[in-house]
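Quick one, probably user error.
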């Protein structure tokens, strides 16, 4: 009988501990729509993020990162956390669905690659009039800007051909040398010079092709090679369909937007702001 009572007590303590831990995790951060929406942030909607006291982590936190559980951009906001003092932060988020769950990370540095000190989740419920999936998922707009993906200019292709001819000529000359050791040294020198020249030449080539439509505030991006692209100011993505949302690599800071561009890919981005919601 005594063992049964002890078992019940232990079970009770464990269950209560789990429930308290769950509640604490849920209350670590909360999200709710802001009472006043910013026209300058459209198509994003403005929300208020409430971060509660994080104990010993406070002094190490440099930024907070938010990303919708289903994908989309990652939003990075530099913050200063004071122990025992709740923090409220206005953030811009894509209101694609009425109810969205956001992953919220407290970061040790000012970018998305920083160490994650703590993670939690917060659910936001948008009023129906603020939900605007069509501003982010728009296959019709994509169809309007379908264009041939960029290839290298003719001048660049001729340069590559000329460089290949020169390397072949140099290798042919080295083949005439009879001493094997000297021949090997010359081959290494030719390869090294060709590699350095290729890296230097490649770094000076324009990879990203960007077209801007001021009338629609659209930026159409494509690239000839994989590149990390950065742009001053904040931008909003436009997806062809919902399946593209999880693959979004965009990271949005208060003063810039970065994303990873891949060849044979066209992306549509929207500049923020409009006259009415």
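Nope, works fine. Designed sequence:
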């Amino acid at each position: 009988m005594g063992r049964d009572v002890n078992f019940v007590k232990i079970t009770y303590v464990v269950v209560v501990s789990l429930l308290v831990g769950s509640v604490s995790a849920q209350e670590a951060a909360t999200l709710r729509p802001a009472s006043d929406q910013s026209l300058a942030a459209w198509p994003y909607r403005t929300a208020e993020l409430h971060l509660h006291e994080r104990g010993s982590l406070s002094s190490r936190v440099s930024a907070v990162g938010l990303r919708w559980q289903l994908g989309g951009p990652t939003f990075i906001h530099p913050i200063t956390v004071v122990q025992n003092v709740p923090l409220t932060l206005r953030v811009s988020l894509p209101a694609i669905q009425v109810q969205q769950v956001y992953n919220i990370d407290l970061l040790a540095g000012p970018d998305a690659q920083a160490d994650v000190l703590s993670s939690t989740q917060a659910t936001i419920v948008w009023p129906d009039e603020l939900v605007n999936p069509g501003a982010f998922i728009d296959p019709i707009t994509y169809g309007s800007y379908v264009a041939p993906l960029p290839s290298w200019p003719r001048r660049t292709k001729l340069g590559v051909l000329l460089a290949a001819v020169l390397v072949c000529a140099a290798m042919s000359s080295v083949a005439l040398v009879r001493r094997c050791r000297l021949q090997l040294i010359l081959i290494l020198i030719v390869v090294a010079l060709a590699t350095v020249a290729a890296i230097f030449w490649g770094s000076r080539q324009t990879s990203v092709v960007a077209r801007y439509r001021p009338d629609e505030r659209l930026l159409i991006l494509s690239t000839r090679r994989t590149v990390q692209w950065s742009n001053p100011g904040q931008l909003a993505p436009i997806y062809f369909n919902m399946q593209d949302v999880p693959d979004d690599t965009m990271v949005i800071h208060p003063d810039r937007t970065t994303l990873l561009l891949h060849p044979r890919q066209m992306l549509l981005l929207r500049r923020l702001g409009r006259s009415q919601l």
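Confidence is low (pLDDT under 50) at residues 1-26.
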